[in-house]
Amino acid sequence: MSTDLARLTEKARLEPKLVFTSLYHHVTDVDNLQACFEALDGRKAAGVDGVTKKEYGEHLDEYLPALAERLGDMGYHPRPSRRRYVPKPGSPKGRPLGISCFEDKIVESALKSVLEPLFEPLFEETSYGYRPKRSPHHCIDALSRTIQQQRVNHLVEADIRGFFDNVDHEWLMKFVALRVGDPRVLRLVRRLLKAGVLEDGLVHVEDHGTPQGSILSPLLSNIYLHYVLDLWFARRMRRECRGGAQLFRFADDFVACFQYQDDAEHFRHGLQARLGEFRLALAEEKTRCLPFGRYARGNAERRGRKPGQFDFLGFTFYCGRNRYGGFKVKRRTSRKKLRASLTRFTEWVRKARNWLPKGELLRRAKARISGHLNYYAITDNTPECGRYLHHATQTLYKWINRKSQRRAYTWDGFNEVLRWVGWPTPHVRVALCPFAKGPLLAR
Question: Where are the alpha helices (DSSP H) in 73-182?
Answer without folding.
Answer: 102-119, 136-149, 163-166, 169-177
